[in-house]
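User: My instructor asked us to take a sequence, write out its structure as tokens, and then describe one feature of it. I'm not sure where to start. Here is the sequence I was given:
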Amino acid sequence: MTSSDTPENGPDSGKILETLRLVQDESGTSNVLSFASLEGIAVRDGHAQISLVTSRDDAHRIEPLRPRAEAALARLPGITRATIVLTAHRAPGQPPAGGGHRPFRLDSPANNPGTPETRPTGKLLPQVRAIIAVASGKGGVGKSTTAVNLAAGLAKLGLRTGLLDADIYGPSLPRMLGHSAKPFVENGKIIPIEAWGMHAMSIGFLVDERQAMIWRGPMVMGAISQFLGDVAWPELDVLIIDMPPGTGDAQLTISQKLSLRGAVIVSTPQDIALLDARRGVAMFEKMNVPILGLIENMSYFCCPNCNHRTELFGHGGARAQAEESGVPFLGEVPLLADIRASGDAGAPIVLSSPDSEGAHAYTAVARAIAQSLRLDR
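Assistant: Let's start with the prediction itself. The structure tokens for your sequence are:
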């Protein structure tokens, strides 16, 4: 939809322009449109997505105004929520990548994985040396915390590392990395967020963290496809994918579109979690994805006062399961308050507290994976 179109059941472009002009900086001399021009409007179910064309330098000037501008737009009739997406000018004469400037849109036709635009024609991300899926058979076993700290551990080893949050329904990456800025869009490609020396992407960077993603399967698959094909991932040594829990469509889509070097399965020690871990191992084996190993998370709790060790969920179950399945056992990660606190604070414990017991556990796993895939630099 161009700026001249009138969104159905929403304000016209003139009203949106007027609203953007009213949001001024502290000096009262500049507003959002002092540094950008309106490129497109899309409204769906009360969610307005406003695309603004700007430059990289001016984008930094817009950032402080963006939250107030989005709040002002959300007060317009027919709009309950607004998202402003910045797209970059391309150099004169430069052909637009992917058919021109195009902001990431949650309601894009590309979210239908059956369209020719998204139908797989070959493996994606050839510029990434190794793509690793971090998975679990069920939720609540610390998979995302493990994925973030594993990626941070690989980055700490000097590897060029990316991190993709493929859990559309429960994105946790923005909180765990301490970043909430919206991604920049340049020449039709989403520029990943840079945090803690890593390149990261999550649906959580594009929507309010309080928003429930009430999507059917095709929309989820379309979003994942866009994260793989429409994100300007740089050359990387390794890309860690935080998979959604379970063994469903998302796992199949990622395995079909990417050349995965391997999968890491995260489980807690108790039998009920190991049942689902077995299903995860079986799923990846059926898709011919090598199992790099199992990690036993929340393996034990050590009292910070008396150092007494308690095995709250049992102990050794993941190691026994790895031996039974004939796959490597990558290590144990203890149940520590510091790991939880670092995730809530947006600072991976591997980097924020490198001498801690938790950091040593994650770093050992990262080193084992780097060595097994010969990624050491």
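For the description part of your assignment, you could build on this observation: The CA atoms of residues 190 and 231 lie 5 Å apart. Try explaining in your own words what that tells you about the chain.
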